[in-house]
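step 3/5: co-fold with NAP
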Amino acid sequence: MGFLAGKRALVSGVASQRSIAWGIARAMHREGAELAFLFQNQRLEARVRSLAASLDSDLCYECDVASDESLEAAFSSLAQSWNGLDICVHAVAFAPREELRGDFVEATTREGFRLAHDVSAYSFTAMAKCARPMMQGRPGALLTLTYLGSSRVVPNYNVMGLAKASLEANVRYLAGALGRQGVRVNAISAGPIKTLAAAGITDFRRFLEHAERNAPLGRNVSLDDVGNAAAFLCSDLASGITGEILHVDAGYNIMGMVESGPD
Ligand code: NAP
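step 4/5: write tokens
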């Protein structure tokens, strides 16, 4: 029996088989969790339904995390099938593509800042508001995804780094607020992985090359690496862990001196 047997997990952010959320869903399914999915809009519906079906789920709900109405509608639809929720995975982020390149000062606008923070950081609080009543009386777990650009300057990551810093503070405040209810809140800071969202960052290929060259493990991380850590963090095996940012990056974040490579 898997270590998530009997748990019900809602997963957002599956856009393709390369999505980090997909790696997480696969690992949770393998460990025995029942799954439900959120997808942003109808453009993604058929793909998400077919991926969900491959993990024995037909619970898929449209949800734009930038809209309170959309979040409330999705959770109330979910509540018609499930009378409780154990795990909620927030794996969504957005910033305008033109702000993810070049000089940070020139590229960043008030509207881009607002959008990046709304979709990538505030939405985790908004999701927690919806999940909280469904987690009443059970040991719930909320999980989000962040990146080292929250605390280090990474070329082209720009305004998304600020949004991730806010998201990480969000993890700590949510953990503080929900702990007495028995709900744990954590984040995984993943190393670079080639996904649709990552493709929006100029020169993302260099993120991958740099991390592979300099990470102690000498490689990039896989969807399985992140998925397995996520399944653990959201399970009762991690019952004493909350407010934590766990790096799943082949150790890259510990390096104080790195080799520059051919450009
Ligand atoms: P992905 O496959 O493109 O997933 C991003 C998801 O966010 C997509 O499903 C996207 O839907 C969704 N999304 C964007 N705006 C939304 C909204 N308003 N409402 C609902 N959903 C929305 O990319 P990913 O790399 O797996 O990203 C997942 C998370 O991991 C993000 O938080 C990202 O910052 C984080 N992360 C990624 C990396 C990496 O290197 N890939 C590293 C560290 C952390 P659409 O496709 O419809 O826009």
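step 5/5: annotate
The chain is about 45% helix and 15% strand.
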